[in-house]
Prior knowledge:
The chain is mainly alpha-helical.
Amino acid sequence: xxxxxTAVQAIQIGTGARTWFPMAVLQAINSFLYLVQAMxxxxxxxTVSISKEVSEQRMTKFNTSFTMIQFGCQLLFVLLIAALxxxxxxxxxxxxxxxxxxxxxxxxxxxxxxxRLMGPVPALHDRxxxxxxxxxxxxxxxxxxxxxxxxxxxxxxxxxxFLSLCFAEAAANAFTVVAVTFMADQLEMSGxxxxxxxxxxxxxxLPGSVVGYWITLRTDPILAWKLNxxxxxxxxxAGGLILTGPxxxxxxxxxxxxxxxxxxxxxxxxxxxxxxAIPIGQESELAGFVVYCRTILVWLPPLTFTALSExxxxxxxALMSLVIFFAVALGLLQLMVPWEExxxxxxxxxxxxxxxxxxxxxxxxxxxxxxxx
Length: 373
């Protein structure tokens, strides 16, 4: 997936008036490849060699560092392209081409370095049955059985985490999309002004990750995530009530600081819960569940925002519609057992089991049974 992602990005350097349609098709493929890459990366977090061998505090610190590096690199990339555009006096089209070319070199270094540092992990299980069933069929059968097993075995913990993640991630992801339209239409800000706001947001995610780390250590990952939902909801409502027109443009930069702090706080909580609350043995599959939950509803908040604003309702109220998704996420997370009980379920060895397509039942494999953990 890393190789194909890089290849697609390299081809898209040639995006122009005549090539936009095939490039749009490639972008759809690129989105799929990114999800594969994300799943493979997330699968490392809950492995025995990482989360189960370090303290909860150390794992929280790891996830905070990951988030700071991610947002820090995004900020550096934006600043680099802006500096090149100004220094070379480039227009929008040439800047886009240059940005894509720099992006190819940037991700090549990142992927090569990343995958050299992330060592090989041996297969955790043998293929169930006699191999007469197609791997695709085994995969879909396994996904279904895992969903049933999560509901049955981890119904008080993982079930509510995954469901809450669907709505929380939809709101958090849609926020940046909705914010662009809101600032352009409601506040009548220029493209440069909007870009400055997002630089402020990215810059603020760095201390935001530290704030999230501090709150998590003094509470727990679940409570810290709940507090983040509440703070995000308050900030969105305040933004809708205060940012009422072009005369309030200067205030939006202060909101950019707040939103950056909240985004930096949000992501380490998700990764810490996933890292420590997932049973060992099916890390890649459950990483796929996380990636699925983080993407399945991302279309709904922007659609809600658009429908409300186009129906004549004030755009400030359309912005506040994001609170609905945070509220649903908070309500679902309230049903999850306390953090200590969640960890006890994992420590108690309550594992998920593999799907045997030959006999069409769930059966543990020898490797899973012999696992000393």
